[in-house]
Amino acid sequence: MAVAEALASGLEYLTIATQLLRRVRVMDAYAGLWEAADPQWWWRTPRPSDAVDQLFWIDEEGPIAGVVLTDWGRAWGCDPIIVPGAAVPLATVWTRALVAIDRLGIETVEVLARDDDFELLGLLSGAGFVADRERSGVTWMHAHDRPEVAVLAKGFALVDRAQATTGPHPMRRRSGEEVEARLRQCSLYDPTLDLAVETADGEAAGYALFWFDPVTKVGLVEPMRVEDAYQRRGLARAMLTAGLERLAKRGARGLKVGYGTDVARRLYVGAGFHVTSTSRSYRWTTRVGTD
């Protein structure tokens, strides 16, 4: 098939990135790091990268590769994404990623790479990227193996955005006042899968988003948080198990969640998830003021 290059920004970028990641998952049940819902979750807050033209390679069936650049504030994330077996080699995608980084004048770049992605690891090393010490990971579970829904502690209630949409979104403090409006621009966002645990007086004690992709049949947990004042009361497990139940009833076959801390890993493994890959972040910083 003929392959063409295309540039896209804003919601057009989000649509193409969603198509690309869906195609990756349809080709391989565990390939890569991201689901189609991940860039939609990243869309929750406005970023300078929204206006950046993102590069994709497209054949007659749709996107087969792309370079996704995301401004996280502390650094820009760079994600080279390729459909398994695609005609575009990783080396080509990576070279174009470096060109884009240079063109945009980005000072600090981070790339999350799986420990078993030896080709990408070699390219990162050759470009001077340095590995972080901490590891994160991805866990999966078949929907048939999901745990029973845990009983919520007394004095708390589980609500979703379809039941209670008049109050402010519980993620606004960390993601900004526009978070709900931005999420509702995303094709995979479903308010009934957007759960929160509230106290008797309506205060948000925790929240979690669950994403279902009807094309790949993957249910993704992203993000999950319990506020510090309400830790160690079983609220995380109650939200997690309730969300997984909703995903399964929606039609999800594979359930996925990533972790960045040992506490999170223990929660997910304890619920029946299995670690399928581990990763580290690799960083490159411009040496300003040097020859």
Structure, explained:
This protein has helices spanning 10-27, 37-42, 90-104, 118-126, 172-175, 179-183, 235-250, 262-270, and strands at residues 4-8, 54-59, 62-71, 76-82, 108-114, 130-142, 156-160, 194-199, 204-213, 218-226, 254-259, 274-285. Strands 1-2-3-4-5-12-6-11-10-9-8-7 form a 12-stranded mixed β-sheet, with helices on both faces. The model has no long low-confidence stretch (mean pLDDT 95). It is of the alpha+beta class.
Order of helices and strands: EHHEEEHEHEEHHEEEHEHE
Which structural class fits the helix and strand makeup? alpha+beta
Uncertain residue ranges: none
Q: What global shape is seen?
A: globular
Number of helices: 8
Instruction: Classify the beta-strand content into a percent band.
Output: 25-35%
Sheet with most strands: 12 strands, mixed
Q: What does the radius of gyration come to? A: 19 Å
**What portion of residues is helical?**
25-40%
Instruction: Count every beta strand, where a strand is a DSSP E run of 2 or more residues.
Output: 12
Mean pLDDT: 95
Placed side by side, the strands forming the largest sheet appear as 1-2-3-4-5-12-6-11-10-9-8-7
State the end-to-end distance: 45 Å
